[in-house]
From TrEMBL:
GO molecular function, one term: N,N-dimethylaniline monooxygenase activity
Protein name: 4-hydroxyacetophenone monooxygenase
Domain of life assignment: Bacteria
Matches recorded under InterPro entries: FAD-bind_Monooxygenase_sf, FAD/NAD-bd_sf, Flavin_mOase-like
Keyword field contains GTP-binding: no
Lineage, top ranks: Bacteria, Pseudomonadati, Myxococcota, Myxococcia, Myxococcales
PANTHER family in the record: FAD_NAD(P)-BINDING DOMAIN-CONTAINING PROTEIN-RELATED (PTHR42877:SF4), L-ORNITHINE N(5)-MONOOXYGENASE-RELATED (PTHR42877)
Keyword Plastid in annotation: no
Keywords: FAD, Flavoprotein, Monooxygenase, Oxidoreductase
Length: 488
């Protein structure tokens, strides 16, 4: 490898994935990397999703880097601002800021075969070259705008939950929220008390369990600061509790019914009106869509100024929403809590690999990678949080750290052997995905009787890992050279 000792590395994005990669590269003595960030600050999804009530539904002591425990978490489930602070803290502590080019969106990437380098085109048209590219763009970064007729003609205020308009005061407004997923159930209880009227448009009721959040008081925080081993034990306890839930998703054990009954009891206790309760009762298996955690969502629906609308939306008019029953609800503000384009086969930007191969074409029907990280025809290109690396049961930060370790091992292998390029074999990728598909076919995500963002329109799950996080860690601990073309 020409750049053997210090390969020039481009990392795209500064969310959990990009920052973890940069920190571990630095720790490994690989200093010649640049992070390209489209925005003016770090944080990825935790910068973009700043809607009222935004918080994590995985406990903070697990939803953080293993190498950077944070004894200062103030809640079991941290709010968005605290997670963003944590990411800024990591950026500063590990000296990453000088490596970051802010306001530098990567518009395209092209592999220059003669030079064995990637050419990245940035927002302003500038071209930069890198020997290795690591994408940390994530899959929950592109808001999904629903194709509802008339949406473009709406004359009131319209925005997506992931692009919250903080300058727009909701006090006294009549507001519509479309969607009842993880984002909606967090923001609805927060905005309901200040708006005049809230119409919440539900297409499919989610399964909701109590969140049971709690404050982590000064004594607990002092304990973790003084005795890091106690914090480590706490993290382990959370990790194994969540890992233990995997069978609920991958095998239809009767134990899943226990959780469904618990959720139905919670619904019954929270919603006395049988009519409203019926509207909120899911008709698919729990876990098929993401299981939501909330203590205040159902109570918010009991407020006199909140209406749950289950009639399908027919059109958005200039000043409201018309439902299939012919009723129009005038609104001032329309909030789309309609999620992200996660499963559909989209590459984060146009990527052209070996022989002019275009990733958009390869992924046109569905996104596939090897261990969610490498793609045949795309030498020296790595995806963090790539296809089938998200989870229904635990912390994606654990998966990110596994992938980062894998990428480091790929780089070390190239350095040791003086290899110029590393590219996964098509056969290895196909074998991997064939097996993945068989395993996914048996999970609740496939058999539970629902549509979800986990799957493409044709029903293929391109987002979730169907095994334990331990299995993923084991399989990404080191590169299997036989699965790769390594060229000098
Ligand atoms: P989501 O789970 O995909 O929910 C989107 C909602 O919009 C669904 O209720 C969906 O209904 C509805 N919807 C979409 N298109 C519609 C249309 N044309 N008409 C009517 N309704 C429509 O999106 P999200 O709530 O933003 O969450 C996405 C993911 O982000 C989560 O699953 C989670 O992984 C992550 N997230 C995490 C947290 C956290 O606490 N860590 C917080 C927020 C988000 P259907 O169900 O019928 O499709």
């Amino acid at each position: 490898m020409k750049h053997t000792q210090q390969p020039n590395i481009a990392i795209i994005g500064t969310g959990f994935a990009g920052l973890a990669m940069a920190i571990r590269l630095k720790q490994a003595g690989l200093d010649s990397f640049t992070l390209y960030e489209q925005a003016g600050e770090v944080g990825g999804t935790w910068r973009d999703n700043s809607y009222p009530g935004a918080s994590c539904d995985v406990p903070s002591h697990l939803y953080s880097f293993s190498f950077e425990p944070n004894p200062r978490w103030t809640r079991h489930f941290a709010l968005q601002a605290e997670i963003l602070d944590y990411l800024n803290h990591c950026t500063d502590k590990y000296g990453l800021r000088p490596h970051i080019r802010f306001n530098s969106p990567v518009r395209s990437a092209r592999f220059d075969e003669d030079a064995s380098e990637w050419v990245l085109t940035l927002g302003g048209g500038e071209e930069v070259r890198a020997h290795l590219v690591i994408s940390g763009c994530g899959s929950l970064s592109r808001p999904s705008i629903p194709a509802i007729p008339g949406l473009a003609d709406f004359q009131g205020k319209l925005f997506h939950s992931a692009r919250w308009e903080h300058g727009h005061d909701l006090a006294g407004k009549t507001v519509a929220v479309i969607g009842t997923g993880a984002s909606a159930i967090q923001l609805v209880p927060r905005i309901a008390p200040c708006v005049k009227q809230l119409h919440l448009f539900q297409r499919t009721p989610p399964w909701v369990l109590p969140k049971e959040d709690r404050l982590l008081g000064p004594r607990e925080r002092k304990l973790y600061a003084a005795l890091p081993s106690m914090q480590w034990l706490h993290r382990q306890a959370i990790y194994w509790k969540y890992e233990g839930r995997l069978p609920l998703f991958i095998s239809r054990l009767p134990i899943a019914r226990i959780f469904e009954r618990r959720a139905l009891r919670w619904l019954e206790r929270s919603i006395p009106d049988p009519g409203l309760r019926a509207k909120l009762t899911p008709n698919y298996a729990m876990g098929c869509k993401r299981v939501l955690l909330s203590d205040d969502y159902y109570p918010a629906l009991l407020r006199p100024n909140v209406e749950l609308v289950t009639e399908p939306i027919q059109t958005v008019t200039r000043d409201g929403l018309l439902t299939a029953d012919g009723k129009t609800r005038p609104v001032d503000t329309l909030i789309l809590a309609t999620g992200f384009q996660a499963a559909e086969a989209v590459s984060p930007f146009p990527i052209q690999g070996r022989g002019g191969l275009r990733l958009e074409e390869v992924w046109r029907t569905s996104a596939e990678a090897y261990l969610g990280t490498t793609v045949a025809g795309m030498p020296n290109f790595f995806f963090l949080v790539g296809p089938n690396t998200l989870l229904g049961h635990s912390s994606v930060v654990f998966m990110i750290e596994s992938q980062v370790q894998y990428v480091l091992d790929c780089i070390h292998t190239m350095k040791r052997g003086g290899f110029e390029t590393l590219e996964v074999r098509k056969s290895a990728q196909e074998r991997f995905n064939q097996r993945l598909g068989e395993r996914l076919g048996r999970t609740v995500w496939s058999t539970g009787g629902c549509a979800s963002w986990y799957k493409t329109r044709t029903g293929k799950n391109t987002t979730l890992w169907p095994g334990s996080t331990m299995e993923f860690r084991w399989r990404t601990r080191q590169l299997e050279p036989g699965d790769y073309h390594l060229e000098k």
